[in-house]
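Any chance you could type out a protein's amino acid sequence plus the matching backbone structure tokens because I've never seen that pairing?

——
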Amino acid sequence: PDLIVQERLRLVAEEYGLPMHKVGELSRHARFKALRLKSLYLGLSDGARTNELRRASNHEINNEQIWQAYELGDEKARDMLSEVAPQELPLFRAASQTYFKNPNAAPRIGGDDMLGFGAGETMSLFAPYVLPAVAEVVKYLAGEIKKAFGEESASLIGEKVKSLFKKYRNPDDSKNKVPPLTAEQLAQVQVIAMKEARRLRLSDKNTKLLANAITGSLAVGRG
């Protein structure tokens, strides 16, 4: 919570031209309170300990501001893997468990993006990369929904993010809870997915395949 408070203080200081050392003035500012109420907290792994975060915040964070995004991320990552490398699906659980232990860690890579599991008998090209890329995309989509719909609980935002994926979308677009992505938003998803894959040192060829699979799973408006 302390890091989050510092970020809110920084935003208020930048927006209103106030010095950072005037903590009291910044924390009493109406904008500081508004940012606290509008903040959304995503649990990106099943060990995210969001309950501890909420308790440590002295009741400044409530349940409606927390969404366990890993539930969607894990499912969509499996979908992506089934598209780009279905032969690696038996490795997905091991890759998922490794990712959730430390979401920021880069996979241990051998030649040509090959990563070994167990005794190294089975090699993987994509399994370790799909979850980190999908998680970053889900964070971006949640932010876009938050900007578009404003004051909503984390669970409602989560439902809207889910409806952006073709798999969960109603064929009758008028019955969906959120409009499809714009071409500009889809392009940003591509950038985010590629940036994360490259951060993890996936090759350019496989980075493009993975990013294309992610963008292809999302609904986009016509025109």
